[in-house]
Structure formats: C-alpha cells, structure tokens
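Sample intake sheet
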Amino acid sequence: MAMVGVQPHWPGPPRPLVESIRLQLEKEVVPQPRQSRNGRSNNRGARSSRSKRAAILETATELFGREGYEHSKWADVAAAVGIGSTALYHYFESKLHCLYEIMAEALEEEVERFDRITRERDDFAEALEAVLQAAFDLSEREVLRNRLLVSEQVLVGVHRTSAREEEARQLARARTRDLEFKWAAFLTRGMEQGAIPEAEPRLLARAILGLYNSVFHWYRPRAGLPLADVADFYVPRCLAVAGLALRSGDGAVSPASGGKRRASRSRVAKR
C-alpha cells in the first residue's frame, strides 16, 4: 500500500500512558501451558517468549501510534511491558526493527483481508465497496497502527546496514508492493468487466489508497467523531475516484467523471 506521510506530533504526557498500558497488559488473562506427567510445563520457554514478543509489539503500536514514533522512548515500551530495557534486545535489535515488524504484520493482515473479500464476490462494484467498508471497520489499536504506517512509511525506503533491520524492512517493503499490485490487478478486473472507466491501474490504485490513507493523518480515536461517519463520507468518494457513481445522502446519483465505460449491471448499494 502506498502510504506516505509526514511525521505528526501527538502531545501528551508519556508516563500516564505507559502506566495505563502496563495495567491493561496485567489485566489480560495469559493462558497457562499444558503440564506434562512429571509436572513440568511443555515448551514453556518458547511460549513465554512468543507471548512477550507479542506484548512488546502491542505496546509499541500503542505508544508509537499515540505519541509518534520519534517522540516515543524505547525504554517506555520496556516499562509498560514490565521488563528491563536491555531485555528488549532479546526480541528486537532496535526500536526501528520493532517498527518494521509492526508494519510487516499490519500489511500481511491487509493482504489477507483484501484477498478474502475480493475472492468471495464476483460483482466488482460490490467487492470494491466491501473492501473499502472493511478498511474502516477497525479497532482502536488498528487505527493507531494505521496512523503509524502512514506517518513512517518513508522509512521503508531507507536501506539499513543492520542485517535484522534490513530483513524486516525488506519484508515490509515487499508486502507494501504486494498489496499495491493486488489492488492494481483488482481494478484491472473491473475495467475488463466494463464496471469502471479504463485508466492506468497502478496510478488508480495509488489514487484510491492515497485518499484512504489521508484519513490517518488527522483521525484520532476518542476524539468524538465515529469512524463509521468517516467511512460514510470517504467510501463513496473512493468509489467515485475509481469511476463508480457517487451517491449523495438523499440517494441521488451523480455520474463519475473519467474515461469511457461500457454498460454494466453492477450497482453500488446504498448503505
């Protein structure tokens, strides 16, 4: 996904946030490992390591997403998780390495969701709207993660000398390109079906994704504006960028501008 943005600053005292994250993690129920006949846990070390790594990623997403990557302290992640600062390096080589892993994980989920939705629907217009609606059906953590992806996407293009950082960066970069390619291929399908006007598919994909990504430059959870209301405004306009009719609040249809389009029975349902 072509998510390029500038580094925002989200003010606010970090310590209360770190403490709230730590308390939230303590409330979560951690499943106990199965016991062997001799009373010893099976794979306890491996499970504990995976659980701790997941906690670090979750905490880092919360801190980076709320305060901004540059304004977040690596030591605060350790404090919120409840480990020493040096213990972080058992899981991640650096703060940047952790950021790349967050990006790669998010993009993998995006690709899987996109594949599932577009595979389940034969009608192009219906599939496109479903993809866009799903893109706004996000938890608070996913919103923060998207804010982070948009603001720090430029770092994916910077080569790293550290082997682990570079491996994670390359993975995030490859998944970004994979998602963009899938979008372009999907839009090509719509053009071939005559559902949308013919256009350069990769540019069209970037135009739609750019409009969507712009939301996360300014949207903040708990700021009083429901994400569903944002979706009601942005989804029809993303559809219009693709070349589908833009529906107004009263149900009237305004023809989308663009190139020539063959007649199609596809119709975007009003939500």
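Comment: Strands lie at 246-247, 253-254. The chain has one domain: 14-29+42-254.
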